[in-house]
Amino acid sequence: MRDPLSKTIVTIQPSGIRKFFDIVSEMKDAITLGVGEPDFDTPWHIRDEGIYSLEKGRTFYTSNAGLKELKIEIGHYLSRRYHVSYDYNGEILVTVGGSEAIDIAMRAMLDPGDEVLIPQPSYVSYEPCCILANGKPVIIELKAENQFRLTAEELEAAITPKTKLLVLPFPNNPTGAIMEEADLKAIAEVIIKHDLFVLSDEIYSELTYTDNHVSIASLPGMKERTILINGFSKSYAMTGWRLGYACGPEVIIKQMTKIHQFAIMCAPTTSQYAAVEALKNGDEDVAKMREEYNGRRRYLMHRFKEMGLDCFEPFGAFYVFPCIKEFGMTSDEFATQLLHAQKVAVVPGTAFGNSGEGFIRISYAYSLEVLKKAMDRIEAFITELRNETK
Amino acid sequence: MREKILTFIEKNSRIDLKELAIMLGVDETVVMNELEQMEAEHIICGYHTIIDWDKVGMEKVTAMIEVRVTPQRGMGFDKVAERIYNYPEVNSVYLISGGFDFMVTLEGKSLREVSQFVSEKLSTLDAILSTKTNFILKKYKDHGTIIAEQKKDERIQMTP
């Protein structure tokens, strides 16, 4: 029989998290800090709108780009929160989560051989999506000494005549790093100079613990070069609803809509109705959740300091990314041993790219009680390790 | 700061003050001083526990009583309320807009005990026109806490 598979797909590695998932799911009373989604339920008034739309029999397709009402609300939201304006008619596309937006943006923008700059550590889908869109991923390794921000120098050094697109994943999963306005201005300058585009994945924008999040699309000359991706999963605790959106220049959104139309048809209708409510009346929910995450973030930083575990202070998302280099093992070894010795599951930094080596990702999308117990166990684990090496 | 402290302790009054201070990013003494101040100012009026008494198997009956009164000369609603809330059996007293005047909640060991209190103590007060006793059959949610169910973490344990 012929090989049924595409040569491209078999070269793509499955996610490195799988192995840990298999162990954890077999283990009794393990504490996992490995979850990449909020621990809150979707606020009730939002769920209720979804239910109401079902009761009203709104069970049909919406137009390909999404409900007009939702696109208008997305436009209002982006201008209200991040001072960037998009026309609902042509510049906004509602997608199945931010994930779909990443995929179809690359497919709409890349020709074979086009280079895509992907800063890592970062979310696991950029590289595979780029490869599947026939692009060539070029990894930029972010550094702890820069607080895992992307610098203009690093960007400049990675650019070749074939470079077309930069993926800008901030606030960042897994590091929790953010990019402030000054950082973004330096990046924007390089982007404009080299005539590049930016895919700005801002899915964690609401979970920023310093000043308000700044979108690179709001900087002069950048809106026409940026695909802004955001969604409802993290800010409104709506992961299972699968709803995100992409905004950008009409020429790009038009082609993305074409792919979306043929591959997906439209994002889930129930979710779209619920999302309208989220944008209209959800600000307070978001603020409450942010406050809660922020408290947990401070608590974890405090505990790391107490146990002498090196960690830069992250100001975004719901992850901390402590350094475990002092123990002389790989991230994978550390995570595996921690799981077996103390039954705490974390994700090795290498699951998010080679530059994650020497780090582990800890999610704080958990109640304080869970975090406390987990920190006690981690403290016991590293105390043991330190005693062994003495 | 006050509002932030209150938001946390409203949900969990047993929170460790040191941990609360860490989470708010302030010194522990700041939290302690604020709490003391708010207790003194009677902003914080008590620390209670939400108990599902049904599970303990102890007989306990709660009633919500709608009370209509005629405020008398020299004796406004506040005075009448005082006469009601001074009974230790009374759990809460609210002045209410609408079809009646006070909502009084009452806890007793049995239906009989509660009815007795209503007929002998409450109804006999001069200002009281009428009472309507509603017994609580089941508590679903109290003080923002859902009693009827316990939540489990149903998320997939490891996700990117």
Structure description:
- Chain A is of the alpha/beta class.
- Chain A has 2 domains: 138 residues, Aspartate Aminotransferase, domain 1 (Alpha-Beta Complex); 238 residues, Aspartate Aminotransferase, domain 2.
- Helices cover 43% and strands 13% of the residues of chain A.
- Chain A is built from 13 helices and 12 strands.
- In chain A, the strands form 3 sheets. A 7-stranded mixed β-sheet of chain A has the order 2-8-7-6-5-3-4, with helices on both faces. In chain A, strands 9-12-11 form a 3-stranded antiparallel β-sheet. In chain A, strands 1-10 form a two-stranded parallel ribbon.
- Chain A is globular, with a radius of gyration of 21 Å.
- The mean pLDDT of chain A is 97.
- Chain B has 160 residues and is an alpha+beta fold.
- Chain B has 2 domains: 39 residues, Orthogonal Bundle (Arc Repressor Mutant, subunit A); 86 residues, Lrp/AsnC effector binding domain/regulation of amino acid metabolism (RAM) domain (Alpha-Beta Plaits, 2-Layer Sandwich).
- In chain B, 35% of the residues lie in helices and 21% in strands.
- Chain B is built from 6 helices and 6 strands.
- Chain B has a 4-stranded antiparallel β-sheet.
- In chain B, helix 2 crosses helix 3.
- Chain B starts with a helix and ends in a 14-residue tail after the last strand.
